[in-house]
Amino acid sequence: DKGGWSSFMAKEVAEQPDAVANTLRGRIVDDAVVVPELAAFGDEALAGIRRIVIIACGTAAYAGMTAQYAIEKWARVPVTVELSHEFRYRDPVITDDTLVISISQSGETMDTLMAVKYAREAGARVISICNTQGATIPRESDAVVYTHAGPEVAVASTKAFVAQITALYLFGLHLARVRGSLSVEEQAEQVRELVAIPAKIATVLESSATVAQLAHWMADTRAVLFLGRHVGFPIAMEGALKLKELAYIHAEGFAAGELKHGPIALIEPGQPVFVVVPSPRGSATLHPKVVSNIQEIRARGARVIAIAEEGDAAVLPFADEVVRIPLAAPLFEPLLAVVPLQIFAMELSIAKGLDVDQPRNLAKSVTVE
Ligand code: M6R
């Protein structure tokens, strides 16, 4: 039931504040993160982990790439992220102090399921992040942390993505607590940021009309580029994936630092480029670098759409459009910056008269390898 919305995707995009809030529920105790499912897995076992490998596909993999920054920073454990279908076929090194985390909305993605089985056979323990109760991947795992985004029907994943990042952040903070790598006050600070996210996503949703208008102006666009840095990098790739699958437009997400290593050759007059700009307060070193990237592409004629923090005036002289997101600590910005990119892709699909919920050639869950 679309509940009065024009599409399941529109409904699911709007449900993102609840997806995050419901995923947090029951997992925060006195400003500290205690995930009961992880406590059951064994805090001692978690404390002994030397390495984490995250496996997932598509949007779920971008959730993993986003969380990699936070988990390493908070828990000081090396984290790598791999596409499930690559991981399994390259004879990866798996030791018994390796923890594998799988991420899957459906819990039925065959590539991820096979990678989970492979990892367990090789001696790793597997924790799964999943949105579907009783699905196959959770049943094949040592523990499962459910995202409580509610059923996701549209092929394009949206609310599951923010819920996956939320669950992975909860994992990271739980791990940091058992490993003692963050002080009580540092943990409380992150928890406060996390708890504030649903209301901030709601604010981003309120300003969605600007992005929608932009999409309708750009219905004839042939290619769109997305740039981001640090946690903005996976968000750039996610924005590009959404646009490919929903609007059938060629789109690429790049790490902003890579520009000069090749992609800048793609910039020609009129080329639309979305840039996820890090906060000037939170990322004092990266913010000027990204602003200077914007200047470089603008000088070559790019049409720049900046996703920037409220009050960031440095982008104004160089961006053609600025989409504002509320203030948040750097690691939490992805949960806000992704929303305008989802809406842009959805609106562009609508502007082209396409089926937003059922893009061509795609299935909601990919149950074949
Ligand atoms: O159900 P899963 O989370 O395992 O699905 C993974 C991908 O197939 C999925 O995220 C896909 O990339 C989406 N269509 C993206 O919007």
From TrEMBL:
Enzyme class: transferase
Active site: K364 (for fru-6p isomerization activity)
Catalytic activity of the protein: D-fructose 6-phosphate + L-glutamine = D-glucosamine 6-phosphate + L-glutamate
GO BP terms: carbohydrate metabolic process; fructose 6-phosphate metabolic process; protein N-linked glycosylation; UDP-N-acetylglucosamine metabolic process
GO molecular-function term, one example from the UniProt record: carbohydrate derivative binding
Alphabetical keyword list: Aminotransferase, Cytoplasm, Glutamine amidotransferase, Repeat, Transferase
Example of a GO cellular component annotation carried by this entry: cytosol
Compartment annotation: Cytoplasm
EC number: 2.6.1.16
Top-level taxon of origin: Bacteria
SIS domain sequence ranges: 42-181, 214-359
Role played: Catalyzes the first step in hexosamine metabolism, converting fructose-6P into glucosamine-6P using glutamine as a nitrogen source.
Oligomeric and partner information: Homodimer.
Name of the protein described by the UniProt record: Glutamine--fructose-6-phosphate aminotransferase [isomerizing]
Residues of the full protein shown: 249 to 617 of 617
